[in-house]
């Protein structure tokens, strides 16, 4: 299944590894911050409503 | 859709409602396109007669480079909208796009260096396109740092918009540097709108799928991150109001 990359295997595989890691980190960081900010806003809105 | 309909999305609530509806579909399409394009390109395309298997790097390098430039151009448009119309959502969309563009630029630089080593015999050269891309990356970092450094959102939006206008020169240079200076190691554009065939069909079609994947991923991330920026801004406003009274 794995294609024969010959003498350039290291270059090709490292390109894919670096890019996929960067994309995964970007997506994870975006989702993580989205969840965190949404929760913080809910808490602040609840507090503001409670305090009048 | 006329322009008045478009301005309606400058309302933060309406923007969140509208993007919430389309975000799942765009995200699924982005993942599908990326998986199909990269698997097709990596496993089912032949070696190039000159570049050998390194041609497979094209499926990451070209789409990320394309998005690095277009992300900045999107930031330019939304910054201009902020300067002219003072819509907060547009300034926040530019802020949301910057880290995505920075990562795309980093991928383009990294894959370019890895590809350049076996093909040119060097990781890096002060070639017009490479240098303008590096400067574009530094502009991304400066833009992100400027947003973080200024407490007042409106002042930050004003100053980052000006920085974005200046950086646009380098975004355009990154695209056209090869044509301007006709020197250096980097080849001309791999894709163009004219009839000239720069890439053989066997590489071209999976490349188009990968580009679609990167574009959709960019849109999905910008929508998600803009929603987050809108919520963060509302939170700061509520906290400030509470402190005042």
Task: Write up what this structure looks like.
The complex is a heterodimer of chains A (52) and B (245). Chain A has 52 residues and is mainly α. Chain A has a domain at 26-52. Chain A is 83% helix and 0% strand. Chain A has one helix and no strands. Chain A has one helix at 9-51. Chain A is rod-shaped and about 70 Å long. Chain B is globular, with a radius of gyration of 20 Å. Chain B is mainly α and 245 residues long. Chain B is built from seven helices and no strands. Chain B has one domain. The N and C termini of chain B lie far apart (43 Å). The mean pLDDT of chain B is 90. Classes of the chains: A mainly alpha (52), B mainly alpha (245). The A-B interface holds A 1, 3-9, 11-12, 14-16, 18-19, 22-23, 25-27, 29-31, 33-34, 37-38, 40-41, 44-45, 47-48, 51 and B 38, 42-43, 47, 52-54, 56-57, 60-61, 64, 99-100, 103, 106-107, 110-111, 114-115, 117-118, 217, 221, 224-225, 227-228, 231-232, 234-235, 238-239, 241-242.
List keywords for this structure.
heterodimer, A: 52 residues, mainly alpha, 1 helix, 0% strand, rod-shaped, B: 245 residues, 79% helix
